[in-house]
Structure formats: structure tokens, C-alpha cells
Design goal:
about 475 residues, mainly beta, OB fold (Dihydrolipoamide Acetyltransferase, E2P), seven-stranded mixed sheet, about 5% helix, elongated
């Protein structure tokens, strides 16, 4: 067995966000008025209803393997004494023949060289222990090498032990007839953390997820494993909930990790708790804004919230949508912005009751909930009546994210960035309406102004949901 101490070359160092799927879409809420953005050695027990492929042995493969197989490459690499602090070349003429791609592409570049290499995991078609490996393809070989799970390829290149993790740096590639993507190997959560599964696509059933720390990664039990992240989908978990997790196995950051490829690789089985929206909006990190305000501050991770959609979907960035979700009470701190990756293709409407799993985050002191998953759980429910907001209220923070109404508001000008200034201590802006927003002219008197309170560029704003939320007073 090789000593596994630090991650392979192409895995990002701590703090480098380009390779971390959970750091994609860092600009998670648009600032108003801008255009803009995760063992044992016994046979596994598998549920009779599980269609994934079991691995019945975790002993090293025979020393004689079919030339060009991943197993042969792994056996060859086993003969080399790896160096946990550097790269050891194994074979400059390494070959993989007829191997199947098991993951989408991820950024496999060295730190500081973003998007110079594409990474994929590939496997022997016949599966079994030691049948998976990660490969790294130079970006210059795109677009012919934009691969997807099920693609079959022949590869040549430099076989190496990169910080004691086997990989192939690709020199040539031949794409062959694709096959149906292979099923994951069923592995017990307590057993996956070993060399036999390195690089393989596995399924862990019924593991309980817990977080290591407020700022750290996710752990799960039974066993001493972690959940890692490389791929584009943003994934979060409910602390204490039970999941089935599919992913590829890697050794990184001194830990064995299973790395989900997509959000659909995560299936929640049971457990978990729901956190009141008021606990997030009323938290100290939310109510105290540092100066200068940092772009991001991370609050509690891995929680559920539930509430009523108050305003329909709006564009936060080109890759991110937003919803306003309230608990229905209209008490202070009772509503929040929920962000959703645009790729999720959600389209909730006002009155839908939804449940979201994700993380509390402060974006330039604007409280938001960055959701990994969101689903409709009920409705239609009554949309909360707008809370009455006094002009020049000193307690605007209590209303952040809430639907409010002001009366007798005079428009006094333009802030120079597309928002209207008023005599009510708030701006009127386009956060919810986007391009459909028409800024009321200076001198306009509004008998009623409804909208959601947001905070951006050091100012509170009321963002109407539609033109009907701005009622011009009669002359």
C-alpha cells in the first residue's frame, strides 16, 4: 500500500477556489444597479434492491493484468515507492485501452494555472477493485476531448504517482464508440477509505452526514470519511441527515474523500432539522455589518429552511436565480433571499411553499441563503400582507428581505446608478424587476410603495416586484 499523505498535483490546494465546485458562482447575489454571479477488509453487504455493482474483494489485484487496463496501471504504480511530497514518474509510455469515462470534466490545473488541464475519472469496463484512475488532459486538446460519462477512450501518456496518487497525464487520445455509463460499485461507508477504491465510482448507502467545522468540509459516519468537491454543482447537506451518496474516491487534504459529480448523486433518506428564517436573519453576523463590508461572510452551514415564496424568480446573475421566501408571520427578520443555480431550472411562483437545503451567507452584508437543493412542499399559501414601514425608519435591518409598504413617498432624484432616491430613507431599485424596472422620475409622489427590502452599496433599498407596486399619487 502506498502512503497517502497529501493530494495529487491536480487537486487544488486549500484556499484555491477554481477547482472547488462548492465555490462556483461566487457572486451569489447581484449587487443592485450592476449588470454583474465535497477501512475494513470484509465483503460488503448490499441491499437486494440496490442496482449498483458490488465489489466483493478489496485485496490487491493479481500482478498480471490485461495490458492497457486501469488495473495494470495501478499494479505498475504499486511497484514504485511514491513520495508524499513530490511527483514520481512511473512510466512515460503508460497506456489505457478501452476505458470508460465515469465523470464530467473538472478543472485539473495546478494551483495558479486555472483551466490549463481538464480532469476526468475513467474505469475498466469490467469493474472490480483497483479499476478506477484519474486522468489529466491538456486544455489545448479541446474541444475534441470534451468528454461525458459513457465515452470510451484509448489513452497514452505519462503514468505517475503525484503526491502518492496514481494519475495519467495524457499525450494522445482516441475516442471510440460510447457505452451506457457504468453503475457505481456498492461500498460500505466504513470500508471505502482504502487504496482498492481510489479513482472508482462508488455508492455509499445510509451514511449520516455531519460537518467538521463551520468553515470546514463534510464528514460522514460510519467510518472516517469525508465528502470532497471538484465538480461544478454546488452541494450542501443537512447536518445530521442520512443520505445515499454516489461519487468518485480520491485522497486529498490528508483524507479519503468521496466526491459527488452532480446534485443528483445525493439522495436524502431521512433526518435533519429545519432552522427558522429568523435565526438566520437575526444572527449577529447578519445584524452587524463590518466596515468596510467584506464580499462574503459565511454563517451556519448545512441547514434547511422552509417558507412561502413571496416574489417570483428573478435573475441574480446569468448563472444564478433568486427567490424571496418568508415564514408568513411578517415578524422582524422573517424573510430571506434564497439563491438557486440557474441550471436547476426552478420556476416557483408566489404562494408556493418550499424547503431549501444550504448555507447562510452574507454578501456585502446582504443576508442570503445559498441553496443546494430546493423543492415545493405545499401551497398555494396566502402571500403575507406587506409589513408597514415608516419613512426614515431606524430599524431597516429588521425588515431586510421582507415585503413592506411605505406611503407618501417623494422621489427626490437619481443615485447615478439607476436607482431612485427618496425622502423615505430608502432607494427604489431594480433588484427584482431587472430590465423591466422603470425608475420613477424626480418629483414623483408615490401614495404607496411596495417591495422587498434589500441592502447594497451601503444603502437600504425597496425593490418593487412589478410596476403595480409603485402607485403614483393623483395630482
Amino acid at each position: 500500500m502506498k502512503a497517502k499523505l497529501i493530494p495529487a498535483l491536480f487537486f487544488c490546494a486549500a484556499g484555491v477556489v477554481a477547482c472547488d465546485g462548492n465555490n462556483e458562482d461566487k457572486d451569489t447575489t447581484v449587487r443592485p444597479d450592476t449588470t454583474d454571479t465535497l477501512g475494513g477488509d470484509t465483503t460488503d453487504t448490499v441491499d437486494a434492491t440496490d442496482t449498483s455493482t458490488p465489489i466483493d474483494t478489496v485485496v490487491p489485484p493479481d500482478t498480471v493484468q490485461q495490458t492497457g487496463s486501469v488495473k495494470a496501471a495501478q499494479v505498475e504504480a504499486e511497484q514504485v515507492t511514491c513520495n508524499p511530497a513530490s511527483i514520481v514518474d512511473v512510466n512515460p509510455q503508460g497506456t489505457l485501452t478501452g476505458v470508460v469515462v465515469t465523470t464530467p470534466k473538472f478543472d485539473a490545473s495546478p494551483s495558479g494555472q486555472e483551466k490549463t488541464f481538464d480532469g476526468y475519472y475513467v474505469a475498466d469496463l469490467d469493474g472490480g477493485a483497483y479499476s478506477g484512475i484519474v486522468v489529466r488532459i491538456p486544455a489545448a486538446m479541446r474541444p475534441a476531448t470534451d468528454l461525458v460519462p459513457g465515452d470510451v477512450v484509448d489513452l497514452t501518456g505519462q503514468l505517475k504517482e503525484a503526491f502518492c496518487m496514481t494519475q495519467l497525464d495524457v499525450a494522445t487520445i482516441t475516442i471510440k464508440t460510447p457505452v451506457t455509463p457504468i453503475a457505481p460499485a456498492a461500498v460500505a461507508g466504513a470500508d471505502f477509505a482504502q487504496e482498492a477504491y481510489e479513482g472508482m465510482l462508488v455508492k455509499l448507502s445510509g451514511v449520516t452526514v455531519t460537518k467538521a467545522s463551520e468553515a470546514g468540509g463534510w464528514k460522514f459516519s460510519p467510518g472516517d470519511g469525508e465528502i470532497g468537491f471538484s465538480f461544478a454543482d454546488y452541494i450542501s447537506f443537512n447536518d445530521g441527515a442520512v443520505y445515499d451518496i454516489t461519487g468518485v474516491v480520491r485522497y486529498a487534504f490528508s483524507k479519503w474523500q468521496v466526491v459527488p459529480r452532480y446534485k443528483t448523486d445525493i439522495v436524502r433518506i431521512s433526518g435533519g432539522t429545519t432552522t427558522p428564517i429568523t435565526d438566520l436573519q437575526g444572527a449577529a453576523i447578519s445584524t452587524t455589518c463590518p466596515s468596510p463590508a467584506p464580499q462574503f461572510q459565511n454563517g451556519v452551514r448545512g441547514v434547511d429552511i422552509q417558507g412561502i415564496v413571496v416574489a417570483g424568480r428573478y435573475d441574480v446573475t446569468a448563472s444564478l436565480h433568486g427567490y424571496i421566501v418568508a415564514d408568513g408571520t411578517q415578524a422582524p427578520y422573517s424573510s430571506i433571499i434564497v439563491t438557486v443555480p440557474a441550471a436547476s431550472a426552478t420556476n416557483f411562483v408566489p404562494g408556493d411553499e418550499v424547503r431549501a437545503t444550504g448555507d447562510h451567507q452574507e454578501f456585502y452584508c446582504l443576508t442570503q441563503f445559498r441553496s443546494s437543493t430546493i423543492e415545493k412542499v405545499g401551497g398555494p399559501a396566502p402571500i403575507p400582507t406587506p409589513a408597514t414601514l415608516a419613512k426614515n425608519s431606524p430599524d431597516l435591518e429588521k425588515f431586510e428581505g421582507m415585503l413592506v409598504e411605505l406611503t407618501d413617498v417623494n422621489v427626490t432624484g437619481d443615485d447615478g446608478h439607476g436607482a431612485a432616491t427618496t425622502d423615505a430613507g430608502v432607494l427604489i431599485d431594480k433588484t427584482l424587476m431587472g430590465a423591466g424596472f422603470s425608475k420613477p422620475a424626480s418629483g414623483t409622489k408615490l401614495s404607496s410603495l411596495k417591495g422587498v427590502v434589500v441592502y447594497s452599496f451601503d444603502a437600504f433599498r425597496v425593490s418593487p416586484r412589478s410596476a403595480e407596486d409603485m402607485v403614483v399619487a393623483p395630482n
